[in-house]
């Protein structure tokens, strides 16, 4: 097995605690991530992504490959940031994988983030193994994106045959009317 | 052929750009080796050991703000805002790095320095100092976990101070 080469990967990290921020930046660097852009909260992160869209040459990055964000931040928290990335017209890439870091692990909070289109959740306190697993999952098992009238984000069903309650409630197949498939 | 029927769901299926970027197009398994993970975990542990130093740095900053509160009463609202901001930074991760007492003291400090109107009294400034003393004691004695007897003593004396100063605030 050979190691992933993260050297060309651009990560945007939004974390308000300077100490945790430096731990995460260093952990990602030790894993070989080439570029980590660290900001203090969701507002700064949105501003950064706007610059990626509008003046990529100036800030030296064309595309962010992965977003890692804390949930509980002030004034713009991780959920508002996620909503912006997934839904705002100015978002440079609404499909960017988004990892939410949180000490909120109650099921309803996890569900809330999932409905907003989060890609992965990373619980605090985090470990390197935890970060590694999320990276592998994002690289090896990317999910199609689903856009309906009330959801936009990665397919909430991770696996084939992953049917809630054992009953297939999805009535639409690829070839059904009303289904559009976009490849790229 | 394009249909006039409304679209109910769109599925976006893209090439795995991130995989191409990280694993290249070469065949074979790619992953993160155990050695790489262990090296990173060690680096993280080592960084975590710096936590008490980081807190000490913040306590010094708090001390400066406390000094300004004493010397320049007209600056108190600004100082409290700064103290509140620093306390917020501290309260988040004490527990993560083995110092839940720091989290609990910082949380308390954060709570009573939240922005408010009205005068900030000398007693409230004293209360800031009581919090700083308690935090300093935790870091100086490397009082990790709940701190056992010492931890209880520190918590009790801080609570006494809170009670005393709040009654006369």
Helical amount among residues of chain A, as a percent range?
25-40%
Sketch the major β-sheet of chain B.
Answer: none
Runs of chain A in which pLDDT lies below 50 for 5 or more consecutive residues are none
Cα separation of the termini of chain B:
77 Å
Count helical runs of chain A.
6
Instruction: Name the beta content range of chain B.
Output: under 5%
- pLDDT below 50 for ≥5 consecutive residues: which ranges of chain B? none
Silhouette of chain A: globular
Specify the structural class of chain A.
Answer: alpha/beta
| Count of extended strands of chain B | 2
Q: Provide the residue-averaged pLDDT of chain B.
A: 87
Oligomer: heterodimer
Mean pLDDT of chain A: 90
> Can you write the helix and strand succession of chain A as a string?
EEHEHHEHEHEHEEE
CATH superfamily of chain A: Response regulator
Description:
The complex is a heterodimer of chains A (184) and B (169). By secondary structure, chain A is of the alpha/beta class. Chain A has a single domain, classed as Rossmann fold (3-Layer(aba) Sandwich), CATH 3.40.50. Chain A is 34% helix and 20% strand. Chain A contains 6 helices and 9 strands, in the order ββαβααβαβαβαβββ. Chain A has helices at residues 18-30, 42-54, 56-59, 78-87, 107-115, 128-140; strands spanning 2-3, 10-14, 35-39, 66-70, 98-102, 120-123, 145-147, 152-154, 179-183. Chain A has a 5-stranded parallel sheet with strand order 3-2-4-5-6, with helices on both faces. Chain A has a two-stranded antiparallel sheet with strand order 7-8. In chain A, helix 2 (42-54) packs parallel to helix 4 (78-87). Chain B is mostly helical and 169 residues long. Chain B has a domain at 50-167. In chain B, 66% of the residues lie in helices and 4% in strands. Chain B contains 7 helices and 2 strands, in the order βαβαααααα. Chain B has helices spanning 17-23, 34-48, 51-71, 76-91, 100-112, 122-140, 148-167; strands spanning 9-13, 30-31. Chain B is elongated and about 70 Å long. The termini of chain B are far apart. Classes of the chains: A alpha/beta (184), B mainly alpha (169).
